[in-house]
Structure formats: C-alpha cells, structure tokens
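Working notes for the structural subgroup meeting. M.R. asked for a predicted model of this chain before we commit to crystallization trials. I am recording the input and output together here so anyone reviewing the notebook later can reproduce the run.

Input as submitted:
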Amino acid sequence: MAQSSSATQNFVGRISDIALNYLALLKPRVMSLVVFTGFAGLIVAPGELRPSLAALAVICIAISAGAAGAINMWYERDIDALMERTKNRPIPAGKISPNKALIFGILLNILPVIVMGYLLNWVAAALLAFAAGFYIFIYTIWLKRRTPHNIVIGGAAGAIPPMIGWAAVTGSITWDSIVLFLIIFMWTPPHFWALALYREGDYAKAGVPMLPVVSGASETRRQILIYTVLLLPLTFVPLILGTAGLIYGITAGILGAYFFWLTIKIIISQNDKSARRLFGFSIIYLFALFAALIIEQVKI
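Returned structure, recorded in token form:
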C-alpha cells in the first residue's frame, strides 16, 4: 500500500514537473504583459462581445504569444545556454528536447489563429498570425543576431496585442488601436535597452549585438532618452481621440514624469542601479497605463 502511494506521488510529481517545464517555454511573465494589453484593447474598443467570446479572444492571444516564445527558445537555445539570465530555461537545462519544444510551439501557433478566425473574425486572426510570425521570423531569426536595431523593429510584434483585442470586437483596424500599438512600440526600446545596460556582459558573451555591446553605454543612454521623449507625448493621443479620459490622463502625466526622471537619472548616474530601476518601473508604467484604460471602462 505504501509502495503504491509512493509510486502515485512520484508519477504526479513527474507530470507536474513536465507541465511546469512546458509552461516555462511559454514565457509566462512576458506573456502576461502581452495578454493584459490585448485585454485592454478588447475592453476599450467600441461595441461588445459575449463574455465567452471575450475570454476566448484573450486565451487565443495568450496561447499565440506563448507559442511564439516557445519557438524563440528553440531557436535561441545555443545563446540561452551562455547567458546567466537564460541558462536555466527548459531547453538549455536539458528538461525538454529541442524537437519537442519546436513541435509544441508550432501546434500552439496554428490553433489559436484558426479558433479566432472561425469564432471571432479573420481580421483579428490575421493580426494574431502576423504578430507571432513577426516575432519568430523577423525578430528572432532575422534581426536579433544581426543588428542592434533588433529591439526597435522587433518590438512591433509585442505592440500588436491591443490591435488584436480591438479587432476581435470591431473586426477592423482604426487609428485608436494604431495609437495603442505605437505607445507600446515606442516604450519597447527604453524598456529593453535599460535591461541591456546592466546585462551587457551576457549579451556580449552570447554574441548578441544589443545596442550597449555595439555602440556603448553612453549611446544607449542617449537613445533611451530620445525614445522616451518620443513616447511620452504619444501617450496623450488617446485623450485627443476620445479613447481615454481623465483617469488615464492623470496616470499618463504622473507616471510619465517619473519615467522621464528615471531616464535622466541613468544619464546622470551611469550605473547599473539606475538602469535596473528604469527597467523595473517601465513594466509598472505600461501595466498602469493600460490598467487606467480598463478602469475607465469599468467605471462607465
């Protein structure tokens, strides 16, 4: 009896470990931000979806984003093994074979596009497919190992989810959804370059031409400032279009001022601490902006 119980526990433990490893392939922390901004696009779009279809749209965005992340891990398994930040991911750690990870990623990329197209609309499905394809083929395979502009161009993939959510409701692409896309697109370089500043050694060891590796820390800080200056006015455009209201405007103003101050600090301080602070706050900043959009709709 005791042996049977022990065998059952061991079996359950193994299944749990396998499930957690496959979950890690989906990059859940990255996926959470993608899903949240996609949900915001769905909530602020004019019109309504049945709760079941709205939930389905969010699940499709989550699965597609995670699947693209899985293929990214498959393709980058060699450089992941060299970097402290990524060496414990499932493939370089030997927990999942590369072939299984690739098959897993391909299947999960196809399924949500088909489901979204048939049950919602093909505009949203096309955007979903485009975002995954752009991340895999343009960013991961083409740009990341070739140019320091990888994040600038590749950031388009992570900026599309609000457009997907918007299209899931309306079946269209409008200036309102394009502006939400542009906000994330302009936010991405300061966010990732702040990370790259204090992870420069990792990227250099792996041969990834991130901006600090290619152009140096001073130029990276200058580019962060430039993109921040471009980003902050853009965050107020939803007010002009009527997509956002007072709550969002106050949030964008207060958090934007602090974002700008942290950007100035990395130029003045020129140390890893200031870069870490900007990177950490940039995540809170984007979450808060899109949370404000959602809160305004719930309030109404």
